[in-house]
Write a structure and sequence with these properties.
globular; 4-stranded antiparallel sheet; 2 domains; Arc Repressor Mutant, subunit A; Jelly Rolls; alpha+beta
């Protein structure tokens, strides 16, 4: 059986392979940068692309729905976007949360003509919409943009792999801790960070594949241990890492 240490070993192997691929493609970076967040690279990429149309949306507004034309990429300047899929039986499940400083909808760049998922604002959000044709034109003309995109996508792929490994090998308690730490998106010198906008326990339950009652029980446990505080706003402390690192 693969425990938490085994899953970390598998992820280290993936990062080694990704590092080799990035060197072949001429993308600057090292193993430590691969483990870092994607927001810095996404911000650089947005600047290289020259920005786009700014959209200001209220909470629970649909950015795009399943089967909509896939003709643009979106950059989250402020807020959070919930990405969901609908099963054949009609049940909607959360497949990801995209926070500030991240892109979504980039599948249109590889030939996908229609959206497979639905994207909805969690709270008020500011989004930058960049036309697909504009991006592809810049890619053809500017190798620097292509390199930054490869770096961004490799990092995003590592995040997806980590989430998949997390779902397979870790308990729902550890998965909740990891989800909260990712949502907090700590800056280098922070020991605590408040998650904004608010995210419901029901959404957290959908994200980690458990029930709302279990999330509520874990959150109460985390609060008693001093890992989180919530009184109108949810604040996550770095010490929550102890839950992930425990066997």
């Amino acid at each position: 059986m693969v425990n938490g240490y085994g899953s970390r070993y598998l992820l280290l192997q993936d990062r080694c392979r990704a590092g080799v691929a990035m060197k072949k493609l001429g993308v600057a970076g090292d193993m430590h940068s691969l483990g870092a967040g994607t927001t810095h690279v996404a911000g650089e990429l947005l600047n290289l692309l020259g920005g786009g149309q700014t959209l200001i949306l209220q909470a629970k507004r649909t950015l795009y729905a399943e089967d909509d034309p896939a003709d643009a990429v979106f950059y989250v300047e402020k807020g959070m976007i919930k990405v969901t899929a609908r099963s054949a039986a009609g049940k909607e499940i959360v497949v990801g949360i995209v926070g500030a400083g991240e892109f979504l909808g980039q599948s249109c760049l590889v030939g996908r003509e229609r959206r497979r998922f639905k994207a909805t604002t969690v709270g008020a959000a500011t989004i930058v919409r960049i036309e697909r044709d504009k991006i592809l034109d810049v890619f053809r003309r500017d190798p620097a943009v292509r390199r930054r995109l490869v770096l961004y996508l490799v990092r995003r792929n590592l995040r997806v792999q980590e989430a998949f490994t997390d779902q397979l090998f870790n308990s729902s308690r550890q998965r909740l801790a990891r989800a909260l730490l990712l949502l907090a998106d700590f800056h280098a010198d922070e020991t605590a960070h408040t998650i904004s906008p608010k995210i419901s326990q029901a959404t957290l339950a959908e994200m980690i594949g458990t029930t709302r009652s279990r999330v509520s029980a874990f959150m109460n446990e985390f609060r008693r241990a001093g890992y989180v505080d919530y009184n109108g706003h949810l604040t996550v402390h770095r010490t929550l890492l102890n839950v992930i690192e425990s066997r």
